[in-house]
Amino acid sequence: MKNLYLILMIFLGFSVFSQGLSQDEVYLFDEIKYVPVYPSCKGNSKFLKKCFREKVEVFFRENLDLIKLSKFGFRDGKCKINVQFIVEKNGKVKDVIAITQDFRLKTEVEKIFKSLPKMKPAKEGGQKVPVKCDFSVNLELPKLK
């Protein structure tokens, strides 16, 4: 019985001490204090989160090719797109996943998000860490002739 107790204590102690920063741990954007910093964003933590979201959305809208979408058959309609991506420890974007009803739109959106500029990486405990970002974009396509 003592041996079982000793093994259990060793196992529990191992799991408690191994809860520091993991090499593979990805933090969530909304839950981390020091988020990735988009180029040209400056300020405190709260402002950096807001600025990051605004700049990413502006980047997306500026790089969205409405003519290309019209060739795909998208015309004057509303579309919701959910996008997830990770800003790595080196500030580069990876693992972009767009969720939308049309494969062609999904591919186009992922291409745009993969081309986001390199950013200053997020930090946790003084170390650079990867961060998962979630975006929802409501797209209203104008009437194209």
Structure description:
The chain is an alpha+beta fold. It has one domain (22-140): Fusion Protein Consisting Of Minor Coat Protein, Glycine Rich Linker, Tola, And A His Tag, Chain: A, Domain 2. Helices cover 37% and strands 24% of the residues. It is built from four helices and six strands, in the order αβααββαβββ. A four-stranded mixed sheet has the order 1-6-2-3. It has a two-stranded antiparallel ribbon with strand order 4-5. 17% of the residues are buried. The model is unreliable at 1-21 (pLDDT under 50).
What does the secondary structure layout of this molecule look like, with pairings?
Blueprint: H1 2-17, E1 27-28, H2 45-63, H3 66-71, E2 78-87, E3 93-99, H4 103-114, E4 122-124, E5 127-129, E6 131-140
Parallel strand pairs: 1-6
Antiparallel strand pairs: 2-3, 2-6, 4-5
Helix content: 25-40%
User: Mean pLDDT score, rounded?
Assistant: 81
Shape: elongated
Largest sheet, if any?
Answer: 4 strands, mixed
Q: How many domains?
A: 1
Number of strands: 6
What structural class should be given to the helix and strand makeup?
Answer: alpha+beta
The CATH class assignment is Alpha Beta
Query: Nearest-angstrom radius of gyration?
Result: 21 Å
Oligomer: single chain
Distinctive features:
four-stranded mixed β-sheet, Fusion Protein Consisting Of Minor Coat Protein, Glycine Rich Linker, Tola, And A His Tag, Chain: A, Domain 2, alpha+beta, 145 residues
